[in-house]
Structures are given as structure tokens and as C-alpha cells.
Amino acid sequence: MAARLPASFIGSFLARSTSRQTCRFTRNAVTTTQWSSQQLSGKPIRAYSSDAAPAPAPLYAKLKGDLKVAMRAKDAPRLVVLRAVLAAVLNASKTSQPIETDAQLVALLRKTARTSQEAADQFRAAGRGDLVEKEEAQIRVLEEYVAGSGVQAVDEAELKDMVQAVQSELAAEGVDAKMGEVMKKLLGPGGRLDGKDVEKTLVARIVKEVMGTKA
């Protein structure tokens, strides 16, 4: 005759077994509930969620694409320019003033061209014609991208008209048209110069000329 297990042992075993099944069922139920909630919301199931990154500026996308083409073609001047510009954009992205628009990129291209022109002048004075040619080749690449950027350029005559128009607008609003207010209205989001190819130093000079010495 088989030996019978004590009733206390059987009760303890059944209690532990029921507890384990309940825990598994609870965990499965929580997981299923979370999965169903995400599926119903139409969102992909991810361990961590983040907002979608904004689309890059068209000119930035072109620069990145052209870098691959220049590498295959072994276009040295273009490679130097593109690597320098893209590195500057990357560095700016880590600051409080990232480069995110075509207009900002054009400003960077112009700044880089000025630096190359200064270097070319120094090499010319030192009699280094070979280095002058390298800098001038890079300047031609930079000017090519500025010209093809599609960003509207503004000349001095247009700037003067804009400054006068902003002065009139501020006067109509009852605002004292000081230089800072005019600059803000010109260059701020939605301003007349927002998204246009224009140097801030030029804007400041024209504003001073139109307004006199009023700060």
C-alpha cells in the first residue's frame, strides 16, 4: 500500500502552486493590457518613446549628399568645403544657437568664404601662389552653394526701404523706434528679413544710417 502524504504537506504545496500561477497570470495580464493600449493608440511598441526629429533643411541635405559624390569623384576643394561646413553645423547643434535653416546655412557659407579669402590674401602676400589657388578654389565652391541655395538675397536699397517701413510701423503702434526695436522687427521670426540672405552687420549699418545715431 502506497504511503499517504500528510494533509499539511499537500495544503502547503497547493498554496504555493496557486500563488505562482496567480503571479504569472497577473504579469501576463499587465503585459497584455500595455500591448493592447499601444496597439489601440496606433503607436509602435517601443521601450522608450521620443518625438520625431525635424526634417533637415534642403540645403543641408544637399551638402550631405554632395559629400558622398565628392568623395567618389575625389574632388578635393569640394571635400574640404563640405567637411568644414558640416562639422561647423554639427558643432553648432551642441550649442544654444543651432544651424537649422537654409538662411543660417548660407550665412555660414558666407562666413567660411570670408575666412578663405583672408587666408588667400595672406598666402598671396607671402608669395604662396599654390595655397592661394587652393583657397580660391574653395571660395568658388562656397559661392556656388550660396548662389544655388534658393535663399533670397537683399541689397542695400531694399534694406533701406525695409528699415523705413518698420520705422513707420512702430510709429503707428506708438513704439519708440530705437535701433534695437527696428532690428528685432526686421530679423525676428516672421520679420521682413526672416529667412533671407543678409548679413546682420550690414543690417545694423543700414539701420544706423537710416536712423542716424538714435540707439
How would you sum up this structure, described in words?
The chain has 215 residues and is an all-alpha fold. Among the domains are: 56-146, Hypothetical Protein Yqey, Chain: A, domain1 (Orthogonal Bundle); 154-209. Helix content is 69%, strand content 0%. The termini are far apart.
Low-confidence stretches: 25-41, 43-50
Overall 3D form? globular
CATH topology of the domain at 56-146: Hypothetical Protein Yqey, Chain: A, domain1
Mean pLDDT over all positions: 80
**Mind telling me the CATH superfamily name of the domain at 56-146?**
Uncharacterised protein YqeY/AIM41, N-terminal domain
How many helix segments?
Answer: 8
Encode the helix/strand succession as letters: HHHHHHHH
Q: What summary fits the major beta sheet?
A: none
Distance between the termini: 110 Å
For the secondary structure, the number of strands is: 0
